[in-house]
Q: What sequence folds into this?
């Protein structure tokens, strides 16, 4: 029997939990979770990456190197729209030039409109793959992602008002630990329901009209709290409801492309690439719903999200809603972020006060 | 009716096609002037800070056309069908960037949408423009055909001319690998071509090779590179690498596709001296003169060392 593959995938929020499930249960591979991301991850990634490539590239490279050090021998890269489509080939070249002997599953070689081609890419690495097993595991993986996304959505809206400091974080950590033990869809359904009840049972004290902040932006940086310096959490903790639509469930499994395009026609007639449409549509929706502010997140130099900014500026002017723009690269310092968030929070509070009395 | 065309981005690749097309529809065309300081500065003011230099310059050109034409021609070009034929997302976004940036300044766009994967090819995109232009179907088709012909003639003659230069030129030959709109822009590539000639070297432009042939050779260096222009440039390197003395990779800060594509070239094309030039809006080509000079010195030095070694064997 051949030795089991030790596969790894860069960190992406906490989605490593469902990915690990898919690898172990569906593809019969061992999974190496990269070590928690740290300054070292960033430093390693930046050191070996081209200078001005978008930040996710550097972070992924750092994760790969740290996972290889931990024993991974097979690296998974997804491919996808925009520059992601070319990430994998260059990652592979850089790691080979560094002397690492690893295999790649580069899904950029697969064709996204033909699911079978994914199976083909995986089969290259594990010839014993069974299609029914993979499909079954994939379904559970999707459900797992959905349950995480639902929980996080609830947490973002409530964590700012928890009565007992840290209650949400603790329960969320438990939840992830339990998810990691799941073996079937039935178990998952039970767990997810149970935990959702427990999240909802955590006492929160919300003012009648709390500040509401909507978060939009580039795929990776908006979904990966490490990349965006945990700003959603920071914002919420100041005492705000934080809402974000962009997550894996919504963007990958339930993406309403036609509707999005129709809703933003007054501002943008064409698809501007990657997540830009969703960014614009959600920003517009937050504006129409009377949110107090919007935070836009992207990595430095991200072309599609930079191109969405003139539209966001117009939405901001038309609906008189402030937008705070963040652009992250491997050099961004925490201190500056905190100051900008606080100033933004104060401004929203003042505007709300003025609107209430005026 | 007067059609304004910004002398930036895709203009440098398609000017012959576009101008011939509009002229055969009996439309007057104004093209904005060459990039100068004012255009650059205004572009910087209009654009988002982080946008690439090439697109900042573009917005400067658009602004310079306001009030001077009835419609500004801003096509959207996403891809030409196959999966490795996409363009940088900037070209998908351009009409909406322009209309959002200048929405209170009375701008009217003439746009068209080339998106091969959504079965909108170049011909159908050009045909659709006739509605806004008030032209007949046949006339539009005819104008497009003539424009295509003119484009082909021009490209062939440019490629032939360059092949001749590649064979005949004396002195150092350096392959400039960069997007047409960067190489031919007065602010970005202009000074570089100028210095090179002043230093007695012959610039060979990667964008001026037989594009079809170049495209087919890109696969020798990369399997998944998605961008058409970068694939052409990569293939052009394969075509020319035996015949030139060095490579100059020319990019505008912070170009997305080039950030990855140039790195692949640096890592996979060995044995040729390579200079990586990144032009940003502050510095422009300043300081580049000295870098070019020492690059050329190094090539000369290495070649002399090699000849000496061969002579001593
Ligand atoms: S969407 Fe932005 S961050 Fe993602 S690959 Fe494209 S440029 Fe990079
Ligand atoms: S390819 Fe580079 S220079 Fe060209 S528009 Fe895109 S980001 Fe700008």
A:
């Amino acid at each position: 029997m051949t030795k089991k593959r030790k596969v790894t995938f860069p960190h992406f929020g906490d989605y490593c939990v469902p990915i690990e499930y898919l690898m172990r249960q569906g593809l019969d591979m061992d999974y190496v979770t990269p070590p928690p991301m740290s300054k070292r991850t960033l430093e390693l990634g930046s050191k070996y990456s081209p200078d001005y490539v978008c930040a996710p590239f550097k972070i992924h490279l750092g994760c790969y190197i740290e996972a290889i050090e931990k024993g991974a021998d097979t690296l998974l890269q997804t491919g996808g729209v925009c520059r992601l489509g070319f990430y994998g080939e260059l990652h592979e070249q850089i790691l080979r030039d560094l002397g690492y002997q690893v295999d790649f599953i580069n899904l950029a070689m697969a064709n996204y409109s033909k699911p079978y081609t994914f199976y083909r890419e995986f089969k290259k690495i594990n010839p014993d793959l069974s299609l029914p097993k993979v499909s079954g595991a994939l379904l559970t993986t999707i459900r797992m992602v959905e349950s995480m996304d639902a929980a996080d959505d609830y947490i973002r809206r409530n964590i700012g008002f928890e009565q007992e400091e840290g209650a949400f974080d603790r329960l969320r950590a438990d939840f992830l630990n339990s998810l990691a033990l799941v073996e079937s869809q039935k178990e998952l359904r039970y767990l997810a329901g149970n935990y959702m009840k427990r999240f909802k049972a955590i006492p929160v004290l919300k003012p009648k009209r709390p500040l509401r902040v909507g978060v939009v932006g580039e795929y990776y940086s908006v979904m990966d709290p490490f990349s965006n310096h945990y700003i959603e959490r920071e914002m919420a903790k100041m005492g705000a409801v934080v809402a974000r639509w962009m997550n894996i469930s919504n963007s990958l499994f339930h993406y309403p492309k036609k509707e999005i395009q129709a809703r933003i026609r007054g501002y943008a007639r064409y698809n501007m690439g990657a997540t830009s449409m969703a960014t614009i549509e959600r920003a517009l929706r937050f504006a129409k719903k009377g949110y107090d502010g919007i935070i836009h997140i992207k990595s430095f130099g991200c072309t599609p999200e930079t191109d969405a900014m003139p539209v966001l500026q117009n939405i901001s002017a038309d609906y008189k809603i402030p937008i705070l723009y963040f652009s992250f690269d491997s050099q961004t310092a925490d201190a500056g972020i905190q100051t900008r968030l606080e100033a933004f929070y104060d401004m929203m509070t003042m505007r709300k006060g003025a609107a209430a009395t005026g | 009716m007067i059609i304004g065309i910004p002398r930036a981005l895709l203009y440098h690749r398609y000017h012959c096609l576009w101008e011939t097309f509009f002229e055969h529809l009996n439309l007057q065309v104004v093209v904005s002037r060459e990039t100068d300081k004012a255009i650059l500065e205004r572009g910087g003011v209009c654009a988002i800070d982080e946008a690439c230099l090439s697109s900042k310059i573009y917005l400067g050109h658009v602004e310079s056309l306001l009030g001077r034409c009835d419609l500004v021609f801003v096509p959207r070009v996403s891809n030409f069908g196959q999966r490795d034929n996409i363009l940088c997302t900037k070209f998908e976004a351009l009409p909406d960037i322009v209309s959002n940036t200048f929405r209170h300044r009375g701008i009217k766009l003439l746009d068209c949408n080339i998106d091969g994967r959504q079965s909108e090819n170049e011909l159908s995109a050009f045909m659709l423009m006739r509605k806004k232009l008030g032209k007949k179907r046949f006339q539009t088709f005819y104008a497009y055909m003539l424009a295509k012909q003119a484009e082909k003639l021009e490209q062939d003659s440019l490629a032939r001319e360059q092949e001749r230069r590649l064979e005949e030129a004396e002195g150092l030959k350096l392959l400039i690998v960069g997007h047409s709109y960067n190489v031919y822009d007065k602010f970005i590539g202009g000074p570089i071509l100028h210095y090179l000639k002043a230093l007695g070297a012959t610039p060979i432009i990667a964008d001026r090779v037989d594009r079809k042939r170049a495209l087919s050779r890109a696969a020798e260096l990369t399997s998944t590179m998605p961008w058409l222009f970068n694939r052409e440039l990569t293939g052009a390197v394969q075509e020319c690498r035996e015949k030139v003395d060095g490579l100059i990779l020319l990019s505008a800060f912070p170009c997305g596709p080039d950030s990855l594509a140039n790195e692949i070239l640096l890592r996979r094309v060995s044995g040729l001296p390579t200079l990586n030039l990144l032009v940003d809006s502050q510095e422009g080509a300043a300081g580049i003169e000295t870098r070019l000079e020492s690059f050329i010195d190094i090539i000369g030095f290495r070649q002399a060392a090699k000849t000496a070694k061969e002579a001593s064997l």
